[in-house]
Write a structure and sequence with these properties.
542 residues, 19 strands, alpha/beta, eight-stranded mixed sheet, single chain, globular
């Protein structure tokens, strides 16, 4: 192995180590004191509940582990947005599990909590997966109610989704394992079945304090909305259980009796590991985003048997397209090539840039995969579309529009992995969050922004300088350099994969070696949702 490989390997393994440390921290939720309070009540913690519920020794993927990271600091923070979401298996059936984390502000809903819950429901709806809610929440975080209550993508949308899923036959099971207050009371009761834990679970539209102030009635929360009230008097809940474990066992039992889902029919054969060593990815991927590398070498370490059927290999080489298998599933891969290539016309093409010929090739390949019913995997390391007079005269805008059109109208499921850069319109054409990938995850090496840090900082500095000039002021060279550093540092902080994950622009940050698992479980989920919409790209610019 050469020195560069070793240097890359050290750097990328360090990045993965940092990722694991960050995940460990997030998994503590609201901290030891809050956890101890839950334990005193005889409750399992949110992650313990999920671990107990999911089948042992089966894979699972977490969605939104870093949601709200670095946000709401004035409120004391909100790790994982106060809710844990996993895709896993219960009694052999793949499903989505959503558990409020009562160690974080008593499970109260912040704006990002709503966004994350809606993302969990979106995954269940798109893939027709059963969804299990483990409810333990004090309801909306009142000091921020204006940011979570009334809008289309706010709290109320969750109950709207409950109703839509019910009408579409998507199974929803709820367990009330703690508080369940006000509007939040509708979520479990709009599920197909609602169970409650005796002594710790309670559900009511208004708690005892609010009842006292509203109508003057003196009553305690247990009498108002505890398990006995709702299982024996009101009939609001369907099952009463003595503790968390019994409640979760009951869910497992119900899940074991579900009828089989319809299949979309995506092709799968026996899984095989890549022949080339997956660990080599750490050494191939450069230690910074400017350096070139051969994306084909990454692909060969992700696909079964390291076999890849490349489409139009010698044409439009700045995008690699081809067919392979991941964990047995047939996939069409669209990936940005990061080496400098020379076209047959003698044109040098920069790695990571989308040119007219590569956009044309990718568009046709995406259409082919829709024709053949093959799921699509996008590997992003894109700096954008080619600019300049030659490209503009060559029609780069219409060629880019074709690709965006094909991606947007694609009916086969799409999965996106942000390997490196994800800049500007390149993010869109390569199936960024706005283009409905079923799952989108980033490696620690990802950078997501409208443009690269160096270029953006210079543009932002020029704007500041011209504003000062308008006031008759000029910048001294040392002040200029200071400002440039400030702007660059701020911009770079906003382009990290963790910044993107905190806002749910990506579903999470993963070790590159988890990529095959994420894609495989994603296709397995998608295979439970038959394609009903015909493929139609609309008007293609010619």
């Amino acid at each position: 192995m050469d020195l560069t490989f070793n240097k890359n390997e050290d750097y990328n393994k360090q990045q993965v180590y940092e990722l694991k440390m960050k995940l460990k921290k997030v998994q503590f939720g609201g901290g030891e004191k809050s956890a101890a309070k839950q334990k005193e009540k005889g409750k399992l913690l949110a992650r313990e509940r999920i671990a107990y519920l999911l089948d042992k020794d089966t894979p699972a993927i977490e969605v939104g582990a870093f949601a709200a990271e670095g946000m709401y600091e004035a409120e004391g923070g909100c790790p994982s947005a106060g809710v844990v979401v996993k895709i896993g298996y219960v009694s052999g059936r793949q499903c989505v599990v959503v558990a409020n984390d009562a160690t974080v502000k008593a499970g109260a809903w912040f704006p990002m909590t709503a966004k994350k819950n809606l993302r969990a429901q979106e995954i269940a709806i798109e893939n027709r997966l059963p969804i299990i809610y483990l409810v333990d929440s004090a309801g909306v975080y009142l000091p921020m109610q204006d940011e979570i209550f009334p809008d289309k993508e706010h709290f109320g949308r969750i109950f709207r989704n409950n109703a839509i899923m019910s009408s579409e036959g998507i199974v929803q099971i709820s367990a009330i394992m703690g508080s369940c207050v006000a509007g939040g009371a509708y979520l479990p009761i709009m599920s197909d079945e609602a169970m409650i834990v005796d002594g710790t679970g309670s559900v009511f539209l208004a708690g005892s304090y609010l009842v006292k102030s509203a109508i003057g009635e003196d009553i305690d929360n247990e009498t108002l909305g505890g398990a006995t009230t709702h299982c024996e008097i009101s009939g609001v809940t369907d099952y009463k259980h003595p503790n968390d474990q019994a409640c979760l066992d009951s869910i497992r039992n119900i899940m074991s009796m579900l009828g089989a889902p319809k299949q979309a029919g995506f092709d799968r054969v026996k899984s095989a590991l890549p022949k080339l060593n997956e660990q080599d990815i750490y050494g191939i991927l450069p230690d910074n985003r400017e350096k070139p590398y051969d994306m084909k070498e990454i692909i060969l370490r992700l696909v079964d048997n390291s076999e890849f059927e490349e489409y139009k290999e010698l044409y439009g080489q700045s995008i690699i397209c081809g067919l392979g298998r991941i964990d047995g599933w047939a996939v069409g891969i669209v990936a940005n090539q990061r080496t400098v290539v020379k076209s047959k016309k003698g044109e040098m093409q920069f790695g990571g840039v989308i040119y007219s010929d590569s956009a044309d090739k990718a568009t046709r390949f995406i259409m082919n995969c829709n024709q053949k019913k093959i799921p699509l995997v996008f590997l992003q390391d894109v700096t954008g579309f080619m600019v300049g007079s030659r490209s503009e005269q060559g029609g780069i805008i219409k060629d880019g529009a074709k690709m965006v059109n094909a991606v947007a109208n694609s009916v086969v499921p799409k999965f996106t992995i942000v390997v490196g850069n994800s800049y500007g319109a390149g993010n869109y054409a390569m199936c960024g969050k706005a283009y409905d990938p079923r799952l989108i995850y980033a490696w620690p090496s990802a950078k997501i922004a409208v443009m690269g840090g160096a270029q953006a900082a210079k543009v932002l500095l020029q704007i500041q300088e011209s504003a000062l000039k308008g006031k008759g002021e000029t910048l001294a060279e040392d002040r200029r350099n200071e400002l440039l550093k400030e702007v660059t540092d701020k911009y770079n902080a906003q382009t990290t994969p963790y910044y993107a994950a905190s806002r749910l622009w990506v579903d999470g940050v993963i070790d590159p070696l988890e990529t095959r698992k994420v894609i495989s479980m994603g296709i397995e989920a998608a295979n439970q949702s038959p394609i009903t919409k015909p493929f139609n790209v609309g008007i293609i610019q010619t």
